[in-house]
């Protein structure tokens, strides 16, 4: 993993977030959540700063980051695509939808496209099982997605035109 | 209500509230099998994640089986520890654990000492009915410890030792589900982490996932090289534990047999690290008195307390975690390294052997000693003062390999000049021992009077942090003792905060001191083993004619012939060291 050097203001931002949560180790998940919200991802160097501020071991922070699939150590694309692999979505064909996203974007799960526009991740249940299979792009939720819809969804973002069809 | 009445296997039991089913059963002679659970009584160490489910029992009226290690006994509970359902569940759990375990028991370093193997045997597993994916991880080799994570069963004992007991924080469970494994942060290698190599993870690992780097092969090669003179030193704690490798009762002193075995293995000279422990006292004790005198004279630049520096894991701990305090510990090298430095100069000259042709092997209760002897500051022209450090366990293996019937060996004596030691040198192997040895010498040097007594019971024991005040003829010397790095951290934080009133502090990384070292025969969670080893060292001390380091005639001679006086320029060059900021 290549080392990155964090900018001073990034370190300050992380420290401020830790301080907001009282620099308490028990607030680790909240801190990680907020920092990822600000930075988009949680690279090793960020985890090291958080560990120091919360007086936790880096191993423990890394343990939590790797336990929850929500947290990521890889920079996300501008439009992070998440395909739900929960039971309902899975039985209604989420895997084929995922394959189609991978094929069209030429990236694997956890990776970003070269232009940084898209990244693909899997998640477990967004609580919209009635709409299975479900895909989210950023904050937007798409329901009853078929592999044939994938091209259109990607185009919405690539061409900058968002249509309202098939959105939940 | 403070007492609980329950029945276990139809036997009535009365226990205190808060007692687990496991403890209640053990009190009436029912031995529920456990795997991940580990409790070291009196050392305040317990691992009970309730993860492995081997200890499940049936509780009447409860739908699920209950893990006995972490289920509290309740009033009126009816527990069955070996119903058909329980036995089936345990065997299923065991088979599932084994279905993701490499079947290389025949060549595994832990074979014969493996809790997992023992449990499979105890549960009568003859077949694994489950086939499936096997997790594979790369092997991680460091100067002292090897991680073979394929063999990890996620008992979390190492994690408890590394985080709660030692507060080093290198190991943590990472990932989830089937991918879950214990690892350093970012899956880095141990030698890139802040690991101290204390080896307490190795000491408690139930499988072969964590073991020491085996260097017995290198020792055999050196012993069979006719161009080399091979000498050996044995640490104090080894003599109180080696017998266990041969089925002897814990705490059996095997000093004489140990020497005899080493001679039969072919070492040219068999010496004693206890001699170097006496030398450490001369240097460290003098340093203490010098710092103390300056402090009493009002010198503001002198820092107190002085901290002992015999333990390489402790040294690495403060280099990583408290680098701003690296001028507080004594600059005295550890006994292992003092021995090496004297052997490759003073002794090599006496024997007429060139440094490169003299091989120094140490037998240590410790895995960190392997790392210590590889540190650059302990080398001259790339030739280390100590060539190989092997553990008590490795020596046991070497003896078995060499067709030596250990129990039948006669008692033999160490060679001279580096084999004579005082009782003070012997107790270096237990918590409290180094500081007691230092007191015996520092008192007499400072007061010029003979000590009225030699046994300092106030410095002994198994409490994690102890303190005592010793009267140096009107001058009260405040002493602190910590064993286990978590306890050491507490004393260090007090010093940092300016709250420490101690003049001297002894620190040993392992619970119990070196007797509980990461290289000792496995205690399998039985803290009594450590106490018996401790008693053995105090017995050896009591039986010695010389019990104060400065009265060891070979130490006196070494200063006369070679070093001059303690803290002389030569002593400084050979017997002292410096510490580094490793952040």
Attribute tags:
A: alpha+beta, Glutaredoxin, 2 domains, four-stranded mixed beta sheet, 7 helices, 4 strands, 11% strand, disordered C terminus, B: 583 residues, alpha/beta, Ubiquitin-like (UB roll), Fe-only Hydrogenase (Larger Subunit), Chain L, domain 3, five-stranded mixed beta sheet, four-stranded parallel beta sheet, globular
What would you note in describing this structure?
- The complex is a heterodimer of chains A (168) and B (583).
- Chain A contains seven helices and four strands.
- Chain A has 168 residues and is an alpha+beta fold.
- Chain A has two domains: 8-67, no CATH class; 79-158, Glutaredoxin (3-Layer(aba) Sandwich).
- In chain A, strand 3 and strand 4 form a beta hairpin.
- In chain A, helix 1 packs across helix 3 (44-54).
- The longest helix of chain A has 13 residues, at 8-20.
- Among the domains of chain B are: 3-122, Ubiquitin-like (UB roll); 140-212, Alpha-Beta Plaits (2-Layer Sandwich), CATH 3.30.70.20; 286-332 and 422-525 and 540-552 and 564-575, Fe-only Hydrogenase (Larger Subunit), Chain L, domain 3 (3-Layer(aba) Sandwich), CATH 3.40.950.10.
- Chain B is built from 18 helices and 22 strands.
- In chain B, the strands form seven sheets. A five-stranded mixed beta sheet of chain B has the order 2-1-7-5-6, sandwiched between helices. In chain B, strands 14-13-16-19 form a four-stranded parallel beta sheet, sandwiched between helices. A four-stranded mixed beta sheet of chain B has the order 15-22-21-20.
- In chain B, helix 8 packs across helix 10 and helix 8 (273-296) crosses helix 14 (433-447).
- The longest helix of chain B has 24 residues, at 273-296.
- Chain B is globular, with a radius of gyration of 25 Å.
- The termini of chain B are far apart.
- Chain A binds chain B through residues 1, 44, 47, 56-63, 66-69, and chain B through 163, 168-176, 183-186, 193.
């Amino acid at each position: 993993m290549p080392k990155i050097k964090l900018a001073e203001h990034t370190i300050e931002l992380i420290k401020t977030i830790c301080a907001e949560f009282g620099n308490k180790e028990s607030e680790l998940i909240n801190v990680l959540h907020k920092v990822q919200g600000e930075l988009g991802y949680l690279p090793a160097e960020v985890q090291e700063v958080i560990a120091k501020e919360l007086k936790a071991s880096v191993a423990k922070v890394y343990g939590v980051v790797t336990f929850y699939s929500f947290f990521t150590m890889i920079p996300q694309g501008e439009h992070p695509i998440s395909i739900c692999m929960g039971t309902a979505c899975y039985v209604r064909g989420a895997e084929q939808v995922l394959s189609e996203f991978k094929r069209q974007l030429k990236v694997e799960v956890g990776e970003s496209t070269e232009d940084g526009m898209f990244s693909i991740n899997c998640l477990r249940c967004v609580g919209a099982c009635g709409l299975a299979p479900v895909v989210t792009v950023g904050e937007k939720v798409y329901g009853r997605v078929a592999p044939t819809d994938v091209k259109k969804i990607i185009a919405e973002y690539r061409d900058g035109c968002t249509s309202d069809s098939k959105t939940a | 209500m403070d007492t609980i009445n329950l029945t276990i296997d139809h036997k009535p039991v009365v226990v205190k509230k808060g007692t687990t089913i496991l403890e209640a059963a053990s009190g009436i002679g029912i031995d529920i099998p456990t795997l991940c659970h580990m409790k070291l009584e009196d050392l305040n160490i317990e691992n009970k994640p309730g993860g492995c489910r081997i200890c499940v029992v049936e509780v009447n009226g409860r739908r699920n089986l209950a893990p006995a290690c972490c289920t509290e006994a309740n009033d009126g509970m009816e527990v069955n520890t070996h119903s058909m359902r329980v036995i089936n569940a345990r065997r299923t759990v065991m088979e599932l654990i084994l279905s993701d375990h490499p079947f290389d028991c025949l060549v595994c370093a832990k074979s014969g000492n493996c809790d997992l193997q023992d449990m499979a045997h105890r549960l009568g597993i003859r077949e694994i009915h489950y086939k499936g994916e096997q997790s594979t991880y790369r092997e991680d080799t460091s100067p002292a410890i090897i991680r073979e994570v394929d063999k990890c069963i996620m008992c979390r004992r190492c994690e408890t030792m590394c985080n709660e007991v030692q507060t080093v924080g290198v190991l943590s469970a990472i990932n989830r589900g089937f991918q879950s494994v214990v690892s350093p942060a970012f899956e880095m290698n141990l030698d890139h982490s802040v690991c101290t190599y204390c080896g307490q993870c190795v000491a408690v690992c139930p499988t072969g996932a964590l073991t020491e780097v085996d260097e017995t092969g290198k020792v055999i090669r050196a012993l069979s090289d006719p161009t080399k003179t091979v000498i050996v030193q044995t640490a104090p704690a080894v003599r109180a534990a080696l017998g266990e490798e041969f089925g002897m009762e814990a705490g059996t002193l095997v000093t004489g047999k140990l020497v005899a075995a080493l001679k039969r293995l072919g070492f040219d000279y068999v010496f004693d690290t206890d001699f170097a422990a006496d030398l450490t006292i001369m240097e460290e004790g003098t340093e203490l008195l010098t710092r103390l005198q300056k402090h009493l004279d009002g010198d503001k630049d002198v820092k107190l307390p002085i901290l002992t520096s015999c333990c390489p894991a402790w040294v690495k701990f403060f280099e990583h975690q408290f680098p701003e305090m690296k001028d507080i510990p004594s600059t005295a090298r550890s006994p292992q390294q003092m021995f090496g430095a004297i052997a490759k100069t003073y002794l090599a000259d006496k024997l007429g052997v060139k440094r490169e042709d003299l091989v120094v092997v140490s037998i240590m209760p410790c895995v960190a000693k392997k790392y210590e002897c590889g540190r650059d500051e302990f080398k001259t022209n790339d030739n280390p003062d100590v060539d190989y450090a092997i553990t008590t366990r490795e020596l046991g293996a070497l003896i078995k390999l060499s067709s030596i019937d250990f129990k039948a060996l006669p008692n033999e004596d160490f060679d001279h000049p580096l084999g004579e030691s005082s009782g003070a040198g012997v107790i270096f192997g237990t918590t409290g021992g180094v500081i007691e040895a230092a007191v015996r010498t520092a008192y007499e040097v400072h007061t010029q009077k003979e000590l009225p007594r030699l046994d300092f019971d106030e410095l002994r024991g198994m409490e994690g942090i102890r303190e005592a005040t010793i009267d140096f003829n009107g001058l009260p010397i405040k002493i602190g003792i910590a064993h286990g790095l978590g306890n050491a951290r507490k004393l260090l934080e007090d010093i940092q905060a300016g709250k420490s009133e101690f003049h001297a502090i002894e620190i040993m990384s392992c619970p119990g001191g070196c007797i509980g070292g990461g290289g000792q025969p496995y205690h399998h969670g039985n803290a009594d083993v450590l106490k018996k080893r401790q008693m053995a060292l105090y017995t050896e001390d009591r039986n010695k004619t010389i019990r104060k380091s400065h009265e060891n005639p070979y130490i006196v001679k070494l200063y006369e012939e070679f070093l001059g006086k303690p803290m002389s320029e030569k002593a400084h060059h050979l017997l002292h060291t410096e510490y580094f900021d490793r952040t």
